């Protein structure tokens, strides 16, 4: 085990051991839930970062104006009621009574407006809504109004944005931080209070139950409904070694593991004190992100060569995904098994066309330069998918330079625009879920807005025109036709490549109840006996 990983591993184990051996006292009566999520939260700013780990942190600390239920329908969360004009151009929202931030200050309409404005400068859906908005103004202490300048059919979906740069409501004084400057305080009005004094970036985060949180009366449903908390403390502990995390779950040092390695699932299933089930009902997809701004993948022919070199089943097998949890072939950018599944314009990903791929590389003028493939080795699934794809790309003549690093380093490195030989990159893998790819607008990595796009910087005016038309269209039949147009164009541009869809299981101790299929791991409604 590398020294850095060993140090992190020993630190996590030592923390757990001291917690288990600490003498009984007043704190012993508290209920502590110890969890291991896929990767640690290395940032506190859910607007500046699109990393899933920061989103996970956000759902502890913050609340949302609307929440998506288990069917993907926006339901009021912080909002008490709202009205919309007959032409659907004017929207007015009133907040619930009694909402308060963790510092004791009341939640006001001005906080919501400031949070929306900051978020809208970074998020792909936020930018689209902002472009369609004429004015957004505070009406009174708890009411604000959005007046559209042109039709935008996804207002409620935007206000319920759960991923990418998720829309969470924070105090106005914090939300006034420029969007390119990271916030330094994690103060929300959500069900948990972040303990800044106990935070060790990349190692541990601690959250306490918010005693002043006002849960909704509706039953929990997806990311909507009641967010009542039934544990006193949640400790999010980083365990880089998956085997150690699984062993810790088995012997009771951990209560929840988000994504145990597929090869260890049978061991957990045989443990009567552990429950194994999917928390993400649709599943995940391994996305191959390409750098459109640097050779060779600034040429669409080189991007198409990668598409024709891949077989999704090979990737899933290499990741160790059990056959029952594989989707052997899914061409849909919006994931198979969802209402927006489509195969319009799809090609490749089933039977590799290696000769054609080699021809495309030659036509693109590939000169044998190293292709820098960033590899997050602290994630077993990312690492396995990277290695399988690298071998496939070698087979068509690419000179692969697979560079190992942890996920935190990768997320910083992917923002670098220098040539690969000067610290930049060509490729990396990220694992996405159904919320990340829900539709043509909210699918963050479909955005092809050139320098304004997320890392990878795809640039295509036609794809952007189609995405905007889909978002503005209110007629379901016309919207479906536009969806297929977006999908077919995406297969021409290839902002990213679908490496394969699969389902994963979470595992938790049998004395923990209330874990639900929420796609995003959340811990309100959870009890520990």
How does the SSE layout of this entry go?
Blueprint: H1 3-21, E1 32-36, H2 52-61, E2 66-68, E3 74-76, E4 79-84, E5 90-95, H3 109-120, H4 124-132, E6 133-140, E7 143-148, H5 155-159, H6 172-175, E8 192-194, E9 204-209, E10 233-237, H7 242-250, E11 256-257, H8 265-269, E12 274-277, E13 284-290, H9 300-309, H10 312-318, E14 326-327, H11 354-363, E15 370-376, H12 380-394, E16 399-405, H13 407-413, E17 427-433, H14 461-472, H15 476-493, E18 496-502, E19 506-509, E20 512-513, E21 527-528
Parallel strand pairs: 1-10, 1-11, 15-16, 15-17
Antiparallel strand pairs: 2-3, 4-5, 5-7, 6-7, 8-9, 9-10, 11-19, 12-19, 13-17, 13-18, 14-18, 20-21
Task: Summarize this structure briefly.
By secondary structure, the chain is of the alpha+beta class.
Describe it for me?
- By secondary structure, the chain is α+β, with helices and mostly antiparallel strands.
- Helices cover 29% and strands 19% of the residues.
- The chain has 15 helices and 21 strands.
- The protein has a seven-stranded mixed sheet with strand order 8-9-10-1-11-19-12. The protein has a six-stranded mixed sheet with strand order 14-18-13-17-15-16.
- Helix 12 links the parallel strand 15 and strand 16 (399-405).
- Helix 3 (109-120) packs across helix 4 (124-132), helix 10 crosses helix 12 (380-394) and helix 14 packs antiparallel against helix 15 (476-493).
- The chain is globular, with a radius of gyration of 23 Å.
- 52% of the residues are buried.
- Residues 1-28 have low confidence and may be disordered.
